[in-house]
Design brief:
Strand content: under 5%
Distance between the termini: 33 Å
Helix content: 55-70%
Number of strands: 0
Order of helices and strands: HHHHHHH
Structural class: mainly alpha
Radius of gyration: 18 Å
Number of domains: 1
CATH class: Mainly Alpha
CATH architecture: Up-down Bundle
Largest sheet: none
CATH superfamily: dinb family like domain
Oligomer: single chain
Length: 209
């Protein structure tokens, strides 16, 4: 139930900041046993979230930037249908989230940056890539500055059991969601993701992203 509440609350907050993110739902039948197991397990977690989150964010940054660089400038205004984000808008939406989500923990938004207008602020390829890089660097710095104890720090505005670690989790999963979207956009425009092209040179028969 905690995950459901956190996802719904976070999505609502992001909607007000710069646009809605999708939230996954869990059934009530499966939530109850999970909650019971969580309450009975008092073992200290062995998973170190900070280095893994940083590794993930750096990997995401490279893939987003490489993909954005591979897509031609003339495709940056392409969108799959009316009312759907364009190529540039998806990339800038990700950049906005990289600023907005750490903001839940008090990380300041860069001066002069309006998250409400960021998505439509430019279609220039070089500016979009620059914004992607700056936003990931900002997010990575926010996580790098956290102590291990910070991950368990309560954050009541996201839910009664929410903590700073949940914010980092949301940051990473949100970027992964839109990386998949961006790959689909690229493929629909005849662009093979650079990491896929490199892998296919080594193993041509192996399916890739």
């Amino acid at each position: 139930m905690r995950n459901l509440f956190l996802s719904a609350t976070a999505a609502a907050l992001l909607w007000m900041a710069f646009g809605a993110t999708q939230a996954s739902a869990q059934s009530a039948d499966s939530a109850a046993p999970a909650q019971s197991a969580q309450s009975s397990d008092k073992t200290a977690p062995s998973y170190d979230m900070k280095p893994q989150a940083l590794l993930d964010l750096k990997g995401l940054q490279k893939k987003f930037v490489d993909l954005a660089d591979a897509i031609p400038q003339e495709k940056y205004t392409w969108r799959p249908g009316n009312g759907v984000r364009s190529v540039s808008e998806v990339f800038l939406h990700v950049a906005g989230a990289n600023y907005a989500i750490p903001g839940f923990m008090g990380t300041p938004i860069p001066a002069g940056l309006d998250l409400k207008t960021l998505e439509k602020s430019t279609t220039d390829k070089s500016q979009v890539i620059n914004q992607l890089n700056k936003s990931f660097e900002s997010a990575e710095a926010a996580v790098e500055g956290m102590t291990n104890a910070d991950f368990a720090k309560p954050l009541k505005k996201l839910g009664p059991d929410a903590n700073y670690g949940d914010v980092v989790y949301l940051l990473v999963t949100h970027a992964h969601e839109h990386l998949g979207q961006s790959i689909a956009y690229a493929r629909m425009n005849g662009v093979v993701p650079p990491w896929t092209a490199a892998a296919q040179k080594k193993t041509p028969q192996q399916p890739q992203d």
